[in-house]
Amino acid sequence: PKSWRDSVGTKRIGTREHLLISAACLTVMMAACIPLKTPGTMATVENCNHLSRVDALVGNGDFDGAIKESLDELARSPKSFPGDAALMNLGLISAHYNNPKKDYKKALAYFKRLEREFPQSPLVEEAKIWIGVLQSFEKAKQVDIEIENIKKELRQ
Q1: 74, 140, 72, 57: which is closest to 113 by C-alpha?
Q2: pLDDT classification of 86: cutoffs 50, 70, 90
Q3: What is the DSSP letter of 153?
Q4: Above 70 in pLDDT, residue 9?
Q5: Spatial contact of 43 and 94, defined as CB atoms under 8 Å apart
Q6: CA-atom Rg of the chain in angstroms
Q7: Dist CA 72 CA 30 (whole Å)
Q8: Distance CA 93, CA 29 (A)
Q9: Mean pLDDT over residues 11-33, rounded?
Q10: How many CB atoms lie within 10 A of CB 72?
Q11: Residue 15 carries which DSSP code?
């Protein structure tokens, strides 16, 4: 069966932010468990069993279960791999276009936490990209709100 990571970004969903988030999800999630060299260890796909469980949960639409699985993994490895991958998953799941409880602010907080708590992680660069993208969305959202307010004022 296809993983949700394989299909992210292939659906046309209508808004530019969802499309960008989908494309970024695919890139980041596929890179999340490539063999990584971390100080003192070699982390490999075999160390990423939680990603398989998260894949299955997201594939079944169980975003709450996927978040719980990632939080459990983070609790088991709060300062080392795969804790960084768990934070990345939490951010991606929080921003996933099919997640009915998607929360971009929460996703942004997870990515910032990854950057802060795992500065040597190979996932930090992807987290920084996400931070930039989500902050841009927030700015664009503010501009849209301001435009709508100006339109309302002009109609009065």
Answers
A1: 74
A2: very high
A3: H
A4: no
A5: no
A6: 17
A7: 21
A8: 10
A9: 49
A10: 12
A11: S
Count CB neighbours of 146 within 10 A: 10
Can you read off the two tokens belonging to residue 129?
């990209």
pLDDT digits (tens, 9 = 90+) for 118-127: 999 999 999 9
Calculate the average pLDDT of the chain.
79
| Mean pLDDT across 59-67 | 95
Phi/psi for 22 (5° steps) reads -60, -45
Tokens 């394989």 appear where? 6
Tell me the C-alpha distance between 12 and 101, whole Å: 19
CB 121 within 8 A of CB 88: no
| Two structure tokens written together for 85 | 């991958």
Supply the pLDDT for residue 52.
Answer: 83
Terminal Cα-to-Cα distance of the chain (whole angstroms): 55
Quote the distance between the C-alpha of residue 90 and its chain's center: 6
SS3 letters across 81-135:
CCHHHHHHHHHHHHHCCCCCCCCHHHHHHHHHHHHHHCCCCCCHHHHHHHHHHHH
- The one-letter amino acid at 115: E
